[in-house]
Amino acid sequence: MNNQSVTIDILVRARRYLAGASVLAIMAGATVPAMAGAEQAAELGDIIVSAQRVDQKLQDVPAAVSAVTADTLQKMQISTAIDLNRIVPNVKFSSVTGGSAGLSPYVRGGGITDGGMALSESEVGIYLDNVYRARLSAALVDFLELERIEVVRGPQGVLYGRNSSAGAVNMITKAPSAEFSGTIEAGFGTWNERRLKGYVTGALSEDGKWSGSLNGMVRGRDGGRQYNVTLDEKVGDESFEGIQGDVAYAGDTVTGRLTVFYMHTDGDGQWAVPTTIVAGEIVPSTGSYRKVASPVESYTRVSQYGATLRLSADYDTGTFTSITGYSELSDDWRQDFSGGVAGSLIGLPSDDPVALFDRVSETDQWQFSQEFQAAGGLGERLDYVAGVYFFTEKATQDVLSTIFFSPSSTLFVATTDSVAGFGQLTYRVTDSLSLIAGGRYTLDQKKLKGSIGGAAFDLHERYDRFTPKLGVDYKVTPDVLLYASYAQGFKSGGYNGLAGNLVQISTPFLPQYTTAYEAGVKSDLLGGTLRLNLAGFYNKIRNRQQSLTVASGPDIGTFVVENYNATLKGVELEATWRAFDGFTLWGNVSLNDGKYTSCSTTVSAACSIIDNDPPAFPDWSYAVGFDYEVDVGPGSLRLGADFNARAAYFSTADNVAIGFVKQQEFLGGYVGYDYDRWTVQLSGKNLLQEKGWTTGFGFSVVQPQFAVDPRTVLATVRYKF
């Protein structure tokens, strides 16, 4: 399908959906006015973001940034980063295929597939209050009281801390307030999900300079996401506890905030779906993606605690800020990646399912980071951001793999030290024209000790890179911004956490370099009631680090990392229209194209994926939605819906059939009622009951796929005080 046909298809689908949205609004008691009604609508308002490490209006940031506010998070029940698929263009977030608590994030086709391993480093940086979180096995958190989530698309090679060569996600938690307030929320949903969540904040001193807050959640659900036909039980149960406390100080020139947190997840893990081929089509051998067959009991147990200290002091020309972060993580999981294969397929006398790829992993990790930065202005024309960054991490992972009944063990003890210096200048040539120049020098040192199959190894590598950025932006009017930029991203080399033998683990893969060109326009039109943001990008990637499955030979079932060159390009459009007070329409569209162009590895490799599509980079995707609020009785009725679809894509770089994901469409929605301090809401995800999978891989008779979540609903009651 060419891009013109795709565009027509998207517009037709969007028109049908928006027509349905209008019908829903009318059914709720609304009278949809004529187009002239848009003149009566309130402006969309400014959203303040810190995407460039200083507070700015979203529409003034010369980069592709999406901001999801606390109100949207609450209404749409965006509880994990995976839910960002519903509202942010050109992102594809899903669970990792190792344990049930991790995240596999992709932005503009850049991401990672093996987030459950301690050696993994994603192209998409995950940040919590501007502190980089190295391990994606704890990235799915829903207990935090968030102020907003910022998603920055494109390489962040200057201002962000670590390996953000494809993009960055920054979750900003709600700061304490001197004004006493709080919320308490109870919920009940699918699979007997029950949750209790609370938040309270207030002054800790009479003058209000000291304040504090406390928030937390307990949540549990029964099995039911899938059914295990071998064990004759429902699977997918999970329990979670999380708590966060904050103390803040707001002086005349000095401010500070200390955050401490703890969270724990315990569940029966993730379950692969075994597949077979019927009439040339890959289908679940159990008959449904809701049924699994492994005889092995999976589990996931994750605990994490840590603290963040942020201190700021004003001086004559700006603000000096220190951000200190520390955390410790324990991540244990077990999973049969085969999904349970009929014994007769490997010559056994019975069809009873057997586990052919059983893996047990135990990981302990700690990390520490320190950032010092200064931001301000020199004179009336020159703004600056400059700083230094230090990061250190140590992770120990013990893995026992049993593949085709043959056990093997691997022990990793990995240490990473990273130091960087960065700076960016913005010079306003005129009141409308600004020039941007910046750069970052990064030095990474990696050490890896351990053993694999009884053979010991002791490895170390050093990587460094300067990554520049140049940009220009021009204010056509106060409400229309044009911008263009050139930037580089860097992801250091390293070691293959999925290696199956000493040669594979001892051969480091090369560092990855991204050269990115981006141009766009940001505009607020129709008196501030219509917001249109357009961005186009062209990324050239050298030495892309790509994991590939070994499907045959003596190393069958293992994984190698090879380096390839690739190009990725696309266009993204975001639109929000407040058609009239209380009624807002929004949508986004992404059109993409990408290929692996050549093999750049210096070690023995098959160079087998040249001309293949990059994983998780569909030719097109789009989302449309609406939010509507109207006075009904003594309170107000709220309802909304979101519909998103993406073209078929390959989830693995080898572009084999088992990793092919068909076109998918998802519908979510909510209806709520606000009365005084009370809010009652019913929300749902995957209301169309889309059935399918997020990824798959295979070798021999091991051909698993991993299912999307079925339809879920959640009813909540929230009280504000």
Report on the architecture of this protein.
By secondary structure, this protein is mainly beta. It has a single domain, classed as TonB-dependent receptor, beta-barrel domain (Maltoporin, Chain A, Beta Barrel), CATH 2.40.170.20. Helix content is 5%, strand content 58%. It contains three helices and 42 strands. It has a 22-stranded antiparallel barrel. The radius of gyration is 25 Å and the shape is globular. It starts with a helix and ends with a strand. Residues 1-8 and 10-39 have low confidence and may be disordered.
Short description:
This protein is mainly beta. Helix content is 5%, strand content 58%.
> Strand-residue fraction?
over 45%
- Low-confidence region ranges: 1-8, 10-39
Distance between the termini: 54 Å
CATH topology: Maltoporin, Chain A
Number of strands: 42
Task: Kindly provide the radius of gyration, computed on alpha-carbon positions and rounded to a whole number of angstroms.
Answer: 25 Å
Mean pLDDT: 90
Kindly give the count of domains.
Answer: 1
CATH superfamily: TonB-dependent receptor, beta-barrel domain
Main sheet attributes: strand count, strand direction, barrel closure: 22 strands, antiparallel, barrel
CATH class: Mainly Beta
